[in-house]
Design a protein that fits this description.
The complex is a heterodimer of chains A (439) and B (313). With 439 residues, chain A is an alpha+beta fold. Chain A contains 13 helices and 18 strands. The longest helix of chain A is centred in the last third of the chain and has 17 residues. Chain B is an all-alpha fold and 313 residues long. In chain B, 81% of the residues lie in helices and 0% in strands. Chain B contains 13 helices and no strands. Classes of the chains: A alpha+beta (439), B mainly alpha (313). Chains A and B meet through helix 4 and helix 10 of A and helix 2, helix 3, helix 5, helix 7 and helix 11 of B.
């Protein structure tokens, strides 16, 4: 299935999908008459091979299909996925990398990683591609939906540096690319079209809600004090040139459960922060170690954060670590809290990322009976119950201050004259289908 | 001559062994979390353990080192932990960009330095003073600043050259030349600054030597004295500086490849260092050391050819 720019799923290789009553079996109908570019037919068997390979191959996203227990085919064009447990984000995942289908013949041959064979609107032209630098795609002449082929050739270039990407845009070498708040001004002055949308929220993850490492963090008042202590607007202006929206909640406006008034739940109020700390018995404050990664954590942020927390008596001791060690250190619970930038998905995607007891960014496995009950409803309820549970969860997270969100960061994407695009919900870079020559 | 080359090659092998061993052991300590890095945020602890096992990261340090060494001696560097692509293929696909830029830079630096250095030595006066100013400012301005200025003028404003990217020779020599012009220019500035000074002072020294005076007293034309005799005597010093400079150009090319988005070795090294992609990084180290050893050997041979005395010492 394919995700439209707003996130709605529309038919692609799967023409239809249907859950059984308790949402533990998903039946997919596969489009007939489609073949991979090597001639292998796209059928139920090919889909099964790919889904099985994805969930057992120990790849980066294998967890996206971890609740799929069994995949079986029924005839040429029906695939049934049996789940071990309900998975509210399964369809979304199938509309993303978990649903990418490659030719079983090419998978069998073993070189699918360097010589991809799919059934999509474009094929990789390996002769005109340099690994890690430039990839050329040409129109697949046998593709079934011409409306998805707006170009004859698409070249994707890889840049590791925003300045060189800006240069390539300004000099007319590329037609579109993501920039940063610091480079946006130059692109705007050169007459490029700007697209702004948010995919991530940034702020503090207060992991140690049980007080294992820092007893003070067990008290919700202390965590709320942290929220009040930080001038989010000033940080946003300093760190991202104001490219973002100040918030105190972790859900995005596109998700069920988003509540506009929670954006302002914790205004900057150091007095109140000090009072809350005193009420909790920490009038003299406490010290906390937080990691910082040079190049990844903005300097203005590290300086500002240290100052704001220091002002109310929380002594931040920064531990410089390597970027390669960051995720592992957070996941292992080495730090009681940390600044981070996190993807904003649906309430359930957020839960699997930061709230469920086994979520990677819940390293101390915190839970309360109330949160557990809400999560259960979020997973098992019907659509209306899930939406209500999302609202409850968001309110609980904000009230209990499991996090101290600062802002939703704006992504800035630019196209040159002659090209248009549409931002794709929950993606930094729009999908290839969203680009078109300007009319 | 043969024993000279053999001795140099033997020394090169020792250097190669030492550098790669030290690198391997240093990387060992930074590769503790690479399995998590490969699998990303979504992976579970069990997945990470499986990945570690698959990469051999659960093995003791020495057995990992022996396994690597045994393969490396047979020219096998394995595959990238991240992309799964063969390390040798990746390096081979990226050598052309780096070597194009580095070699052309060295040639340009050599020619320009000799021209400016000799002119300054012979003419002195304002040419000489001009060289001093250019040298000092050329050495003082960082390469990336030069690069950024060059891009904004020649690529963005004038659009004479592409701002980023590399075109292969097979795509057309004109395209190839255009794609490396700005990177070469950026690297040349600092190269000329240091090399021209050397050429100047050694030319002055040679011109003051007795044999030049003797040649002059015999009535040889001044241009013949300069180009046939004096330059030959002065060039070894310039060449030696150039061979030392080669290593710094190779270092500078990392930054230049980043700014110009060139698919080169430096870019690959940087990328694999930040990710902890050990097989790629080890491959890059081995190939780079071989390159440095070979280039230095060639320079030594050229010096020996120009100046027979150097061969004996």
């Amino acid at each position: 299935m394919r995700r439209e720019p707003d996130g709605t799923l529309v038919p692609m290789l799967a023409t239809d999908w249907k859950y059984n009553a308790d949402r533990t079996k998903l039946t997919l109908t596969i489009r007939s008459g489609v073949t991979f570019t090597d001639g292998t037919p796209v059928n139920a068997e090919a889909v099964k091979v790919n889904l099985d390979r994805f969930r057992t191959g120990n790849g980066p996203d294998a967890k996206k299909l971890s609740r799929v227990e069994n995949v079986e085919t029924q005839g040429e064009s029906t695939v049934v996925l049996t789940l071990s447990d309900r998975d509210p984000s399964l369809l979304e995942n199938l509309g993303n990398s978990a649903g990418f289908i490659a030719s079983p013949t090419a998978i069998e041959a073993g070189n699918i990683g360097t010589d991809p064979v799919g059934s999509g609107p474009y094929t990789l032209d390996t002769a005109n591609s340099v690994d890690g630098s430039e990839y050329t795609y040409v129109k697949n002449p046998d593709y079934w939906d011409e409306s998805l082929q707006k170009y004859d050739t698409i070249v994707i270039k890889q840049f590791n540096d925003t300045t060189s990407m800006l240069n390539a845009l300004l000099s007319g070498q590329i037609d579109a690319g993501p920039l940063t708040p610091n480079t946006a001004e130059q692109a705007k002055n050169a007459g490029m079209t700007e697209y702004r949308y948010s995919t991530d929220w940034q702020g503090l993850l207060i992991f140690d809600r049980d007080g294992t490492k820092i007893p003070a963090l067990k008290d919700p008042r202390v965590r709320q004090a942290i929220n009040y202590a930080i001038d989010k607007k000033a940080l946003l202006d300093q760190v991202l040139n104001g490219y973002g929206t100040v918030t105190s909640q972790i859900l995005p406006p596109s998700a069920d459960g988003f509540a506009p008034d929670l954006d302002t739940a914790y205004p900057y109020d150091p007095e109140k922060a000090r009072k809350l700390l005193a009420d909790a018995g920490y009038a003299d404050g406490f010290a906390v170690e937080m990691p910082t990664v040079s190049g990844l954590f903005p300097q203005a942020l590290v300086a500002g954060l240290g100052k704001y927390l220091g002002d109310v008596g929380i002594d931040v001791r920064w531990q410089p670590i390597q970027v390669a060690d960051l995720v592992a250190s957070l996941a292992q619970g080495k730090y009681a809290m940390s600044w981070y930038s996190l993807f904003q998905g649906s309430a359930w995607v957020t839960a699997t990322q930061v709230i469920l007891p086994d979520a990677i960014y819940n390293p101390f496995h915190s839970s309360t009976p109330e949160v557990a009950a809400t999560l259960q409803k979020l997973q098992d309820g019907d659509d209306a119950q899930q939406a209500a549970a999302a609202t409850d969860l968001n309110a609980e997270m904000t009230e209990q201050a499991w996090f101290a969100p600062f802002y939703r960061k704006d992504e800035v994407y630019f196209t040159a004259a002659g090209t248009t695009t549409k931002p794709q919900a929950q993606q930094v870079v729009p999908s290839i289908y969203n680009f078109a020559p300007a009319q | 001559m043969i024993s000279f080359i053999t001795r140099r090659l033997a020394a090169g092998v020792v250097v190669l062994f030492a550098v790669s061993t030290v690198t391997f052991f240093l990387l060992y300590f930074s590769s503790a979390n690479v399995a998590r890095e490969i699998l990303g945020d979504n992976a579970t602890a069990e997945q990470v353990e499986l990945k570690k096992k698959a990469l051999g990261l659960d093995q003791p340090l020495m057995s990992r080192y022996w396994a690597w060494l045994k393969d490396a001696l047979q020219g096998q560097f394995g595959a990238s932990w991240f992309s799964g692509r063969s390390v040798t293929d990746s390096i081979m696909s990226r050598l052309p960009a780096t070597m194009s830029v580095v070699l052309v830079t060295i040639i340009v630096v050599a020619i320009v330095s000799v021209l400016i250095g000799v002119a300054a030595a012979v003419r002195r006066g304002w040419v000489d003073r001009g060289l001093q100013v250019v040298s000092i400012s050329g050495a003082a301005v960082p390469q990336f600043v030069v690069a950024i200025v060059i891009v904004s003028v020649f690529a963005i404003r004038l659009r004479w050259f592409p701002a980023t990217g590399y075109e292969r020779w097979s795509d057309g020599p004109g395209l190839w030349a255009a794609s490396i012009t700005l990177p070469v220019l950026a690297l040349t500035v600092s190269g000329v600054a240091s090399t021209a000074q050397q050429v100047r002072s050694s030319t002055i020294k040679v011109l003051e030597m007795d044999y030049i005076r003797t040649l002059r007293s015999r009535g040889l034309g001044s241009s013949e004295v300069l180009f046939r005799h004096a330059l030959r005597g002065a060039s070894p010093a310039g060449l030696t500086v150039l061979s030392l400079h080669f290593i710094s150009i190779l270092g500078g090319v990392v930054v230049i490849e980043q700014i110009f988005a060139l698919p080169g070795i430096g870019f690959l090294a940087l990328e694999s260092t930040t990710r902890g992609d050990m097989p790629v990084l080890m491959g890059v180290v081995v190939y780079t050391v071989i390159l440095v050893v070979v280039i230095n050997l060639l320079v030594d041979l050229a010096v020996g050819w120009l100046n027979p005395k150097a061969r004996v010492s």
